[in-house]
Sequence to fold (128 residues):
Amino acid sequence: MYKGEYRYEEPGCPTEVTVDVIGGKWKTLILTYLLPGPRRFGEISRLLPQASKRMLTLALRELEEDGVIHREVYKQVPPKVEYSLTPCGESLKPILLLMADWGQKRVESKAGEAQGREKEKRDAGKPA
Fold:
């Protein structure tokens, strides 16, 4: 166990700052789903059915604390809360879109590799 005095140290590189803000299992997906515009908690929850309500709430709070999203509470019955990107959050759009493009290419690449392996298996079973 660490017994020395705690000292806050600045992040080692700018990428670390980015990962600190948008890293984690749900944050990047939340931000991506907010790109088109504001969404209510229930909408985000339906888009991420694998995320528990608690985890989703924690991720939204952290994004709000980091100034990446805005939480708008409407004074009405029943209460209505909407989440939207702040200008800081909007500045992440190019990064999020590049991540989506990379992911799409990765899916296509993996699918192509799998098809190639299947073809090799079929060809290996054919008489010469």
